[in-house]
Structure formats: structure tokens, C-alpha cells
């Protein structure tokens, strides 16, 4: 692999694990395809994730946001089931039956295991690594809790755990993958809303599913995060949504911040030279 | 944007976990130390001994306190050392740690030699190398903030280093005016030129940010930045008069350092506000 390709900060990248230096016989890249059209909001994935990864509960109170009790992804919530309760006035054409209709959109969110992961790029300690499976992992013993990864993630996924002081997020059950098992959430999902497997296979399956839904007249169905040419080089965990991404709390068109890093350093260097020149200029002239 | 266009109005991003006043102080002190060190080097080369000594001390105090603020934010000194276990060009915090660590060691050595009068040759050499690294100290922190998904910081990555550079030069000049009155002509010019650079760059920054620029004009960030601007203008005016009046010199020195600290805090706060409001994440991604 050429030097330039190895250092690519954004754009399509077929093999992130190989790019990170794993030998060519490394396992194939795996991912999640979350098909929200069949999600029933049972939260089995949230619970299975907490059980397997020994994550503490986040409090049992409902947030007041429909049936959501966890609110968002966080350091101790690595799968989060969103409940979008939409009210719309639909005229059903029947006398006395018009009025407010409620539609629930349910979706299980997770770390995207980005092809170009901003969290991994900015981590100063090397605690965040690319695994042999192409996923993104925090090494707890290396992380120093600096928190740089937190605002770098364009999806608002990773966060600092108050009890350990370290960064934490979904590992795609790295320990299970090593043993040839599926991640706990995908194993627990009763409707196969969460599908796990080789990423290429999932992308094909997802494309079929969208066209199937379109044929059924569900034209709002769309894929989110599957495109290798998008701002993060394609997500390792992507979704089938039934509405705009932001409705589910997802950014519509996120970009890995490191894409602009060369330009940022150029501007900083220009400003540093300006500072040096200004100071030098001030020393010209009258001595006193 | 209507409520339906984000998940119950919740933020899409995680706001930075960095603490106040630790991180704004770290930004301010680092800039002050950098510009003071270059001032000391040039003062030394042009035979202004008092100003050189004042610059060396300010650089050492600023750099040490800046490391202290960072360590306080991290919680333990070993965590700062942990950053030096790797050098990662994609992480501004890693690059910054590798600028800050040698810079603070060298400026500490230079100041120690200055205070004790021992090893003057080595002290001069340390001060010279520190003075050459120093301009990078004034601007790397701008990249640190900008290389995140925080809309208010990322959107202004071109102008931010110039704001920080100008503010660093003016605060260092202000320290020179206070500490070495009889040789304060170049320091006074630094106070003036740095303030002008900061004011011009900040104006461009607020104008060029588009929708996200709102966060610089609202709430606490706006109030703090307005105070910073007023203090900069007062300090600038006083610096112009400082040639003849001791009161003006002292007033200028104090105003410009308060302004530099307020500028860092205001920008920090604006970024946090932009991360909390999903509008600033979603809308620019929708239109671009
Ligand atoms: S979604 Fe965020 S935390 Fe997950 S890999 Fe991408 S940048 Fe990292
Ligand atoms: S908090 Fe940990 S994982 Fe995140 S950037 Fe810092 S060292 Fe890396």
C-alpha cells in the first residue's frame, strides 16, 4: 500500500484493518445493519448489551420522551433504542375517523465503527485502535480520560464514564467476535432488526430490503451510513430508516473532522509565522 | 427547524467534557507563554536585558501553569506523561503535548538560569530554542479546538489561529510593559499590533461562520466576548498613551491580559453552546 493511501484521512477505503497495518490474512470487516422497519422497541438489545458488557444501569426513570428511558448513547449505554412518537393529521377518507394519528418510529442506535473514525484519529494516547475485524475499540488500560474523542465524534457516541474516568462505547462485542460468536445485541434481537455479518454482505442485503420496501409503497425507506463515499468513508454500522436521520437524532451528513486537518495546520502555521513576524517587527526601530 | 426534525430537541453531539476554568486557562496561559518567549529572544538579541528577563519569566510561569491546568483537567500528572507515549500526527493534542513539553522544560531552564544567575550560556541557549518553538505555542490550541465536530469551533478553523495569535502577542506585550517599563517600547508596539490583529481576525471569524456564527452573538459567550472586546479596545487605547503615562501602561497591561483570558473563555463557551443545540449540527449539513 502506498504511503499516500495509508495516510488517507477521508474518502472511500476498502480495508481499514489492512490500512491500520494488519497482515493481509486478517479477518474480513464485519458490521451491523440495523433495519428499523422491523424494530418493535423491545429493548432486548439494550439489555443484552448491558448484561454482556457488565454496564451499570442509567436509572429507571422514564425521560418523558415516549418510552425512552436512556435518552441517548453514552458511556454506559452502547445500544440505545429511540422511540419517535410522531403525531400527524391523516385524512382516512372515512366519516368521523379523521384526526390525530400516531406513528412510532423505533430504532436501535449504536457506534458507527466509522471507516475514518474521528475518535480514533484525535486520540493522543493510542487508546483507540482499529481491530483486526475493522471495528473501533477503546483500550481501557491506555485511555487517560483526556476526553478529546468525545467532541470529535460526529455522531455524539463516545463519552467518558464517570465511574472509571475513561472513554467508553460499543466494542461490537470484541470478546465475542474472537470466540466466533455474534455480538450480544444481534443475538438477542427477536425480529432480526439488528443484523451482524461481513459488511459487504450486509450492504447487499440492505439494498435488497430497501427496494423491497419501495415496491411495497414505503417510499420513505432509505439507507443511512452505508455509502463508502460519505463523510466518514462509510459506517461499519448502518441503518435502514423510515424518516430523515435527524428525526432519530442522527446527523444528516456527518464528516470526519480530520478531513480538514491539513488545512487546519496550514492556517495555524500561517498564524504562528504572522505572530513571529509581528513580534519581530515590533523590535525594529527606536531602542528604549 | 421544527421539533420533529430532531430527536425531542436533544443534542446530536456530545458537548466537550473539558472543564472550566482549567481548559480556557490552559489556552490563555499557553499563548501568553509562547509570545513572551519569542519577545524574550528578540529582546536578548537586541540588548534589552530587563525585557528579556521579564519575557523568560513570563514564558516559564505561563508554560508551567498551562501544564498545571491541563493536568488538573486530566486529574493526575501521569496522565499528561501518558500523552507522550506516542506521537500521533492526526491528533492535535498529541502534537500539542510534544510542543508543550519541550517548550515548558526549556523555558523553565531559561528562567531558572535567569533567576539564579547560574549557567548563563546554557540559559541563553535554552531560551533561544524555546523562543523559536514559541510561535507554535500561540496557535496549536486553535487546531485543538477546531479539530472536533463542535460546529462553533470547526466552522472557524481558518480564522481561529489568527485570533489566538493576536491575543497571545498583545498579552505578552502587556506583560513586557508591566515588568520592564524602561525598555517597554517594543512591548508596547506588541500590545498595539497584537490587539489590532486579534480584533480584525475576530471580526472576520464572527462574520465568516454562517449560521453557526450565532453562537458567538448569543448568551454567555456573547457577553464574555463583548467584555473581551471592550477590554482589548481599552487596553489598546491605553497602550497608545502608555509612552508617557505610567497609569496608562499599568491599565493597558491589566486590560489586555484580562481580555486574552476572556477571549479564550468566550470561544470555549460558544463551542459548547453550539454542540448543545442540534440546529447547528443539522442545518449546515442539510444545506451543504
Ligand atoms: S461513531 Fe463516533 S465513536 Fe463510533 S467510530 Fe465513529 S467517531 Fe468513533
Ligand atoms: S479519552 Fe481516552 S480514548 Fe478518548 S481521546 Fe483521550 S485517551 Fe483517547
Automatic annotation (TrEMBL), chain A:
Domain of life: Bacteria
Organism, scientific name: Saccharopolyspora antimicrobica
Residues annotated as binding [4Fe-4S] cluster 2: 49, 170, 173, 185
Predominant localisation class: other
Cofactor: [4Fe-4S] cluster
Transmembrane portions of the chain: 264-284
Compartments where located: Cell envelope
Region described as Disordered: 1-22
Alphabetical list of Pfam families matching this protein: Fer4_11 (PF13247), Fer4_4 (PF12800)
Binding sites annotated in the UniProt record for [4Fe-4S] cluster 3: 111, 114, 119, 153
One cellular component term from this protein's GO annotations in UniProt: cell envelope
Keyword Repeat tagged: yes
Protein's recorded name: Formate dehydrogenase beta subunit
Positions that bind [4Fe-4S] cluster 4: 123, 143, 146, 149
Cofactor: how and how many bound: Binds 4 [4Fe-4S] clusters per subunit.
Residues the entry annotates as binding [4Fe-4S] cluster 1: 39, 42, 45, 189
CDD domains: FDH-O_like (cd10560)
Alphabetical UniProt keywords: 4Fe-4S, Iron, Iron-sulfur, Membrane, Metal-binding, Repeat, Transmembrane, Transmembrane helix
GO molecular function: 4 iron, 4 sulfur cluster binding; metal ion binding
Biological-process GO terms, alphabetical: cellular respiration; formate oxidation
Domain 4Fe-4S ferredoxin-type: residue ranges: 30-59, 102-133, 134-163
UniProtKB/TrEMBL annotation, chain B:
Keywords (A to Z) from UniProt: Cell membrane, Membrane, Transmembrane, Transmembrane helix
Protein's membrane topology: Multi-pass membrane protein
Membrane-spanning ranges: 25-45, 57-75, 95-113, 125-145, 160-180
Subcellular location: Cell membrane
Highest taxon above the source species: Bacteria
One GO cellular component term noted in the UniProt record for this chain: plasma membrane
Entry keyword Acetylation: no
Primary location recorded for the protein, binned into one broad class: membrane
Record-stated family: Belongs to the NrfD family.
Protein name from the UniProt record: Polysulfide reductase NrfD
Taxonomic source organism: Saccharopolyspora antimicrobica
Lineage: Bacteria, Bacillati, Actinomycetota, Actinomycetes, Pseudonocardiales
Amino acid at each position: 500500500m502506498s504511503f499516500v493511501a495509508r495516510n488517507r484521512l477521508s474518502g472511500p477505503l476498502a480495508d481499514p484493518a489492512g490500512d491500520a497495518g494488519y497482515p493481509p490474512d486478517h479477518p474480513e470487516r464485519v458490521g451491523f445493519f440495523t433495519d428499523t422497519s422491523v424494530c418493535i422497541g423491545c429493548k432486548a438489545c439494550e439489555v443484552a448489551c448491558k448484561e454482556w458488557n457488565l454496564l451499570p444501569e442509567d436509572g429507571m426513570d422514564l425521560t418523558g420522551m415516549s418510552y425512552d428511558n436512556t435518552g441517548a448513547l453514552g458511556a454506559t449505554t452502547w445500544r440505545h433504542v429511540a422511540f419517535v412518537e410522531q403525531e400527524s393529521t391523516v385524512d382516512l377518507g372515512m366519516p368521523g375517523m379523521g384526526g390525530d394519528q400516531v406513528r412510532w418510529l423505533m430504532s436501535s442506535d449504536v457506534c458507527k465503527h466509522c471507516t475514518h473514525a474521528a475518535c480514533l484519529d484525535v486520540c493522543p494516547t493510542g487508546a483507540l485502535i482499529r481491530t483486526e475485524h475493522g471495528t473501533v475499540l477503546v483500550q481501557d488500560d491506555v485511555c487517560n480520560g483526556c476526553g478529546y474523542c468525545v467532541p470529535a465524534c460526529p455522531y455524539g457516541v463516545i463519552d467518558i464514564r464517570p465511574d472509571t474516568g475513561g472513554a467508553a462505547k460499543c466494542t461490537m462485542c470484541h470478546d465475542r467476535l474472537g470466540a466466533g460468536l455474534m455480538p450480544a445485541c444481534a443475538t438477542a434481537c427477536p425480529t432480526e432488526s439488528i443484523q451482524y455479518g461481513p459488511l459487504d454482505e450486509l450492504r447487499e442485503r440492505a439494498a435488497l430490503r430497501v427496494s423491497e420496501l419501495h415496491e411495497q409503497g414505503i417510499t420513505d425507506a432509505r439507507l443511512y451510513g452505508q455509502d463508502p463515499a460519505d463523510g466518514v468513508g462509510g459506517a461499519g454500522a448502518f441503518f435502514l430508516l423510515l424518516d430523515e436521520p435527524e428525526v432519530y437524532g442522527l446527523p444528516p451528513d456527518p464528516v470526519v473532522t480530520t478531513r480538514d486537518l491539513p488545512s487546519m495546520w496550514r492556517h495555524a502555521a500561517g498564524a504562528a509565522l504572522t505572530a513571529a513576524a509581528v513580534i519581530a517587527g515590533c523590535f525594529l526601530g527606536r531602542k528604549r | 427547524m421544527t421539533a420533529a426534525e430532531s430527536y425531542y430537541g436533544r443534542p446530536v453531539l456530545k458537548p466537550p467534557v473539558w472543564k472550566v476554568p482549567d481548559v480556557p486557562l490552559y489556552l490563555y496561559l499557553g499563548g501568553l507563554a509562547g509570545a513572551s518567549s519569542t519577545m524574550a529572544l528578540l529582546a536578548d538579541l537586541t540588548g534589552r536585558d530587563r525585557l528579556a528577563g521579564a519575557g523568560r519569566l513570563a514564558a516559564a510561569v505561563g508554560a508551567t501553569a498551562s501544564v498545571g491546568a491541563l493536568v488538573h483537567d486530566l486529574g493526575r500528572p501521569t496522565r499528561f506523561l501518558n500523552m507522550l507515549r506516542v506521537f500521533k500526527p492526526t491528533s492535535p493534542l498529541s502534537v500539542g503535548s510534544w510542543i508543550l513539553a519541550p517548550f515548558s522544560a526549556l523555558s523553565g531552564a531559561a528562567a531558572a538560569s535567569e533567576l539564579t544567575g547560574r549557567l548563563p550560556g546554557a540559559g541563553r541557549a535554552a531560551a533561544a530554542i524555546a523562543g523559536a518553538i514559541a510561535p507554535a505555542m500561540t496557535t496549536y490550541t486553535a487546531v485543538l479546538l477546531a479539530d472536533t465536530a463542535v460546529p462553533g469551533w470547526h466552522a472557524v478553523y481558518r480564522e481561529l489561529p489568527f485570533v489566538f495569535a493576536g491575543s497571545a502577542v498583545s498579552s505578552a506585550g502587556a506583560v513586557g510593559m508591566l515588568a520592564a517599563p524602561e525598555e517597554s517600547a517594543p512591548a508596547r508596539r506588541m500590545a498595539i499590533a497584537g490587539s489590532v490583529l486579534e480584533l480584525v481576525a475576530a471580526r472576520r471569524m464572527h462574520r465568516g461562520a454562517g449560521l453557526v456564527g450565532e453562537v458567538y452573538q448569543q448568551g454567555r459567550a456573547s457577553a464574555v466576548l463583548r467584555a473581551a472586546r471592550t477590554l482589548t479596545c481599552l487596553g489598546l487605547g491605553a497602550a497608545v498613551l502608555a509612552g508617557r503615562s505610567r497609569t496608562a501602561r499599568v491599565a493597558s497591561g491589566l486590560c489586555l491580559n484580562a481580555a486574552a483570558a476572556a477571549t479564550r473563555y468566550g470561544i470555549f463557551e460558544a463551542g459548547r453552546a453550539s454542540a448543545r443545540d442540534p440546529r447547528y449540527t443539522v442545518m449546515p449539513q442539510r444545506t451543504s
